[in-house]
Sequence to fold (639 residues):
Amino acid sequence: MTERLTVRDIDLDVLRCGAGRPLLLLHGFDPVPSHAPFLERLGAHAEVVAPSHPGFGRSSRPDAIDSVYDLVRVYLDVLDRWPAERVAVLGLSFGGWLAAELASISSSRIERLVLVDAVGIKVSPPDTPDIYDVFNRSPHDVHRRRWHDPDRWKPDFDAMADEELIAHHRNRESLCRYAWHPYMHNPKLRPWLGRIDVPTLVLWGASDGIVSPDYGRAYSAAIPGSRFELIEGAGHHPELEQPELFVDRVVAFLKE
Amino acid sequence: MQAWYLNENPYPFVPQEVLDRADSVRGSLPNKYCDPKIAADLFEEALDEYLLCDDIGINVVSNEHHAGINCLFGASPLILGILARQTRNVRILSLGTLITVRQDPVRVAEEYATADVICRGRLEIGFVKSGGTEMASGNMNPVGNIERFWEAIDLILKTLSHQDGPFSWEGKHYTHRHVNIWPRPWQQPYPPLWTATGDPETSAELGRRGMVNVLVFRGPEETKRAWTAYRKARAEAALPEPGPDRFGYAAFVYTGETDEEGMRIGSKLLWFLNTGLKSAPQYSKFLPGQISPQLAPGLYRSGGGALRPAAALVGITAEQAIARGLMFAGNPDTVVRQIREFQAKAGNFEHLVLASRSGFMTHDEATRGLKLFAREVLPRLSS
Fold:
């Protein structure tokens, strides 16, 4: 299910599954786990292509790739090379930011857009943070805010293999490299979301403590004609906590 | 030997239950616990100690940390401005301005040049890599810190030494199209340069650049390893062998009239390790970019290690600190002997940085210890 994709000098690790309409899946803080139940369900309706961002998972990261500016161009390249004319783009969390940047530059290759608990824009006044600080706050508090049911998702580092821990640390380092400052957003992005001219679904975990549902509503309000939907019983990662509800919503939207 | 006095000017007067409850005594402890009247007294005492050093032949060190009980000196150049005017004799080392958390190295260079002119060429410039809570309080990305460090140094040195009108810098991390500072520094092309590090790779680069390599609380083995890397890098680059003036060591130092007094008062310095280092995991072991991901498994598993070498020393006793070469304390004979023993193990060095006031040590105790060191220890180390 995994394959390699070379974009210029970057060697991307790509998870590919399912069949149907093409869907580019852009991951959040970590690459999508290959055994995640939502993948299989989604694969019944779409051909899912999920690269690990440069510096995440087993994807390489050349020195020159060190900003969201670079990542957006990597994925513009991916879209340009796609055999299908148009592709659905689904972005989770940090990947939602990338998806919103892509779609606001050009939607010529994008058929539909799904943003899930996306970061990337500034909504509140300067002294009110919109996005909980996953670097400067305690790992314990960050974990509790990420999940509707944090106890169920508590990582057991003692049980993880070296390779998993190395990947975990590298993912976090890469996220920090790209998103430390301005923290998890582009101050210029929000007004340009008005350029997005494809059907857009903004999906949000009702219990998300990293970016609140109100932030999601503001995100949706900035994208013309987009629809906002909540998923109950899910935090920042509804695709993992509520895979059935999540896939139902996404598939219903893709079929419209 | 040259002695250099360092008082980080900590603020220990926060109730212990507050410190116990806080996950970090740096970076996030609310400043309502810092009474500005007490802080003013502490600044006054620290500056008086520096003026005493000016009279008794001990050079002075200004450092910088942010937002914590460990150090009230939030801007080294500001303190340099005071020291440059108020001292008249000794050399003044900035160790250092946290250049990687400053937006514009050109301003740092300008401030250093100004201090060097005010003190008529008594300034020395030390660089420290920074990290930990400083990344949060300085709002700077911990990933890429070391790259910024070297680029900032390159820009500062060019700024200090360039004399022919505006030059342009368009680097990876810093851009400044019109660099032309006034005044230029007193010393040409710039003041002597130091860097604090125990990392052999960084020490090797210091060797190639000929900068003073100072190690802070690292013990003789790590010190020797760093200095060996320094010498080796110079040899490989076909550069002249470094003299002892290229090496420095910072330790807790307290000289008493008796061994008992030296130990009793000197052990108060360990507050720096036992109280002043407490740092939440997001600022320390889980801070991204500090170690290679290959070393990550040890960090995450139960009992996972500390990142800062000093953090592994929390809870250490005075006897242990002395045995490990982190502290020199006792009567003058004992202090001389401990320093000689350290030199025998680590290698000869010319600069001894005296971390000789910390925690609840009083101004009076610090003053007595410094006077005794200057009178009874320093002359014997220099002979």
About this structure: Chain B touches chain A through 24 residues (CB under 8 Å). The first strand of chain B starts at residue 2 and ends at 7. Chain B has a mean pLDDT of 95. The first helix of chain B runs from residue 16 to 21.
